[in-house]
Amino acid sequence: MAEKVLMKGNEAIAEAAIRAGCRHYFGYPITPQTEIAAYMAKRMPKIGGTFLQAESEIAAINMVYGVAAAGMRVMTSSSSPGVSLKQEGISYIAGCDLPALIINVQRGGPGLGGIQPSQSDYFQATKGGGHGDYHLIVLAPASVQEMADLTIQAFTLADKYRCPAMLLADGTMGQMMEPVILPEPQTSAVEKPWAVTGTQNKRPHNIINSLCLRPEQLEKANFERYEKYKQIEANEVLYESFMMEDAEYCVVAFGIAARVSKNAVISARKNGIKVGMIRPITLWPFPTDAIAAAAKQVKGFVCAELSMGQMIEDVRLASACTKPVLLCNRVGGMIITPEEVLEKINTLAAL
Question: What span, in angstroms and rounded, lies between the C-alpha atoms of 305 and 324?
């Protein structure tokens, strides 16, 4: 039977990963995600798993690369500047078409910035981050329950499409405590005939490598990878639609900003403004069709995010710039209030 317990978001990620069959964790401490590493350090040795605090984030992601090549569920976690250090390794993993999970519990930036929550790694997560043409499947939780559920979903999707996935949370989600129903332990049922597991003289050698020295070979590999991405875009978009049935205005927000914005939507409704909200759960693939459909219905959008305006570009693209899109934002570790979102809704309604 599934358990319901009070857990911190970071701990929910770690426990869900274990229950998803992950037995290999490589990381390096950095606020505000260190509880994930601490939880794994306690739990992994007790279940026959591997926990290793690497000498650096660069070392950790390359250890993930190796275990992923062996076909086992593996993850790493970090926060914004640490994830920046992992980008070359993430590109290698994507270039080898390997499933792995990267957790980013975001903090403010750029540079060392601060340890308070942010959403300013949106571009890095959804537009590649490392070098070359590739995508990560990017999932954005808005509750501790989703921290657990989307961790399991990320492993499932990574295995299904043989590509890396990222859980993009923020410091608030990582540190807050809420009741969470933990799933029953599971194991991956996905066959991985491509894995580097030793041939036992029963099959040809498997070679995992992202190096393609012949340009026509590299072009073919990239084209084939993007055909896979088209399948992901067609089949795996996730979003929440809130009060959109009769909405004349639409708020778009994810993560902690969406939780705040939902209160603003309810307040606006009480004031007679018909507003709804679309909450992207997959940041890549982005719910482009849902935003495009909303653009035919509403008079304008408010994009609420903890950045200088990153997701707003995808909202404008999805709506084909046919309706005004206002930005409601705070940065540097500051969190939007419901009153600030409501004020921006009122501004939009007055246009």
Answer: 16
Which residues have a Cβ under 8 Å from the Cβ of 236 and sit 6 or more positions away?
A: 137, 157, 282, 285
Report the mean per-residue pLDDT for the chain.
96
Paired sense of beta strands 165-170 and 137-139, if any: parallel
Backbone angles phi, psi at 64, to 5 degrees: -60, -45
Asked if the model's pLDDT at residue 189 lies above 80, the reply is: no
Calculate mean pLDDT across residues 65-77.
97
CATH of the domain at 319: 3.40.50.920
Task: Determine contact, residues 178/36, Cβ cutoff 8 Å.
Answer: no
Residue 226: how many CB atoms within 10 A of its CB? Answer: 12
Q: Is the pTM of this model over 0.90?
A: yes
Query: Is 307 found in the same domain as 191?
Result: no
Among 177, 207, 235, which residue terminates a domain?
A: 235
Domain containing 133 equals 3-235
pLDDT at 194: 94
For the chain, the domain total comes to 2
